[in-house]
Amino acid sequence: MHTKILQFIAFVTLSAVGPQLIAAKAVIRPADPWLDSRSQRIQAHGGGITVWMGTYYWFGEDRTLSNDPEKRYVACYSSRDLVHWKFRRQVLALADPEHLGPRWVLERPKVYANAQTGKFVMYAHLDDAHYKFARVMVATSDRIDGTYSFVRSFRPLDEESRDIGQFVDDDGSAYLIFESRPTKGFFLAKLTGDLMNVEKTCFVPAPLEGGALVHFGGLYYVVGSHMTGWRPNPNVYATAPSLAGPWTEFKNLAPAEMNNYDSQSTMLLKVTGTKATTIIFMGDLWHPRDLWDSRYFWMPLKLVEGSMYLPPPQPWTLNVKTGESAIEIGAH
Ligand code: GAL
């Protein structure tokens, strides 16, 4: 009888505090397998985040092993806290749209929301197996997590374009970051009002890829990786008072021997809350032979007076309401 009562009390207590306990344990663990609401591995590699109606949407390359090998897939997940992700759907399942041939490439998808038209525009790097096509793909949908339809591919500003990145400034202006090898630098190109093309641009004279950008404390911080394919390298950053520059010299985000903790930049995400701002370095830990098993490397960056520092991977917590983040001392 006594045991039964104890069991009952334990059951009631656990039921009552269970959800809070889970909420308190909203920990981001860089490099660990990250599971979605179905307990399946999140497939959002080379991804980007779109904020829409108070919800975060994470889009990225879906490398699920059971995908049709002739097609390329983009998956979409949603979250209110950037930690727990609900699988929405494969929003793109595209057959080779430009006769690119075997092992054609669709990488680094990014979605922009047009508040005026309610349309959603996806950009992605489109290429052949030899990375010679060097264009962006544009696809649109009427719903953020609807099926995206291919519209066209093109070379932005008539330049070769490979890795792309996404940036939305505090005034809502949307930019496509694209890497262009012949120009030995990358472009920060403003999107047109309908988001379907690029217009004026700024140029960063540094041959980098995995380009990402954030605006914080009156400065723009640009981040990129060197061109070593899937192999990691020390990622670097520079700052400027405006997108037009002048840009400082590039410096390492982490001690060079750490090799960016084997990760490559894909996006910088600014989370501004009631008390603080956290800027998240979103990176990929690529597993080129098993791309589906590639991991995510998200860490809060330290930004002090124009310098940017990527801490070593450790579990950390984020509160999107207050904007505060904390490294979990002793957590594993
Ligand atoms: C990387 C690039 C990836 C992918 C890879 C292929 O440099 O960032 O998105 O294109 O090369 O080797």
Give an overview in words:
The chain is mainly beta and 332 residues long. It has one helix and 24 strands. The strands form seven sheets. Strands 2-3-4-5 form a four-stranded antiparallel beta sheet, with no helix packed on it. It has a four-stranded antiparallel beta sheet with strand order 6-7-8-9, with no helix packed on it. Strands 10-11-12-13 form a four-stranded antiparallel beta sheet, with no helix packed on it. It is globular. The structure holds beta-D-galactopyranose (GAL). Beta-D-galactopyranose binds at residues 46, 107-108, 163, 209-210, 229-230, 264. Residues 46, 107-108, 163, 209-210, 229-230, 264 line the site of beta-D-galactopyranose.
List the SSEs and their pairings:
Layout: H1 2-24, E1 27-28, E2 45-52, E3 55-61, E4 71-79, E5 86-95, E6 105-114, E7 119-127, E8 135-141, E9 149-154, E10 164-168, E11 174-180, E12 185-191, E13 198-204, E14 209-216, E15 219-225, E16 236-240, E17 251-252, E18 264-272, E19 277-285, E20 295-300, E21 302-304, E22 307-309, E23 316-319, E24 324-327
Antiparallel strand pairs: 1-23, 2-3, 3-4, 4-5, 6-7, 7-8, 8-9, 10-11, 11-12, 12-13, 14-15, 15-16, 16-17, 18-19, 19-20, 21-22, 23-24
Bound molecules: beta-D-galactopyranose.
The DSSP helix count reads: 1
Described by its quaternary structure, the protein is: single chain
- Strand order of the main beta sheet, please? 2-3-4-5
Ligand types? beta-D-galactopyranose
What is the molecular shape? globular
Question: Separation of termini?
Answer: 38 Å
Largest sheet: 4 strands, antiparallel
